[in-house]
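User: quick one, sequence for these tokens?
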């Protein structure tokens, strides 16, 4: 999900966040301008490839939790990015083959790859919506969402490393509030978000590099990311470094990847909308 013009999104001569990310992951769907910016960012943050892999690992751990423990069977993935196996629906359908997933992105290149490379299981369903999350009314009234998501059942909303592409003026907090209001009780919102908290100088260099090529990149503080969950109940361990969120093995340095990550549950109506004791962990 990238706030760039449609012409820029189709122009392989212009660096694009999804393709830069693909380059760091070792993918092949990137071009010289993407690699050039990717290398400039590596100079500022030499471990950035480790960080994006850590973010993907978090996404997969989160999906496993949502399907196995929370019982979620339908997902809205905001900012799909270029497919990298295993993808969200593959991880979900491996556990519960009937899972349904709506992939949302506003990059035609991403959606072309997604339609070609992300087939569903026969029992489940995958749909693809070409839309910008900033146009949240269109997203929530789209036929693709209606065909995929049952509004009477909980939904998992995944925002993995995407909201940093929205400027403060785009009001990502308001957009998340709209999604929270739309989602049925029992739904979950999962967010990972780059932060400058561990290393302000390095992230300032990344912001400067991306700004030179017209890419919006906004790392945010712990408090700013926490506000995106509103009054939903944060799942333990709370909003923590991405490496520390329910890791398969304890990380040597939880702060080595500059992301905050967390997942929260919309209270049932009987709960009175009060958040649980599972708070935000600094």
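Assistant:
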């Amino acid at each position: 999900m990238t706030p760039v013009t449609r012409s820029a999104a189709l122009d392989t001569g212009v660096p694009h966040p999804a393709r830069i990310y693909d380059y760091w992951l070792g993918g092949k769907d990137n071009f010289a301008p993407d690699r050039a910016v990717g290398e400039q960012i590596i100079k500022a943050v030499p471990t950035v490839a480790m960080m994006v892999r850590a973010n993907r690992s978090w996404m997969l751990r989160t999906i496993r939790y949502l399907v196995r423990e929370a019982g979620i069977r339908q997902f809205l993935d905001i900012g799909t990015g270029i497919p990298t196996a295993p993808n969200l629906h593959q991880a979900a359908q491996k556990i519960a083959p009937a899972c349904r997933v709506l992939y949302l992105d506003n990059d035609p290149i991403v959606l072309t790859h997604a339609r070609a490379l992300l087939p569903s299981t026969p029992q489940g369903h995958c749909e693809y919506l070409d839309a910008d999350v900033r146009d949240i009314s269109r997203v929530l009234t789209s036929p693709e969402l209606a065909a995929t998501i049952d509004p009477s059942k909980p939904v998992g909303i995944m925002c993995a490393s995407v909201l940093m592409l929205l400027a403060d003026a785009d009001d990502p907090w308001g957009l998340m509030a709209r999604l929270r209001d739309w989602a049925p009780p029992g739904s979950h919102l999962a967010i990972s978000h780059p932060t400058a908290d561990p290393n302000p100088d390095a992230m300032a260099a990344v912001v400067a590099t991306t700004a030179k090529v017209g890419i919006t990149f906004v790392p945010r503080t712990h408090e700013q990311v926490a506000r995106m969950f509103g009054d939903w109940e944060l799942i333990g361990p709370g909003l923590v470094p991405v490496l520390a969120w329910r890791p398969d093995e304890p990380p040597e340095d939880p702060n080595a990847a500059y992301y905050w990550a967390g997942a929260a549950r919309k209270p049932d109506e009987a709960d009175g909308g009060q958040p649980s004791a599972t708070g935000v962990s600094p």
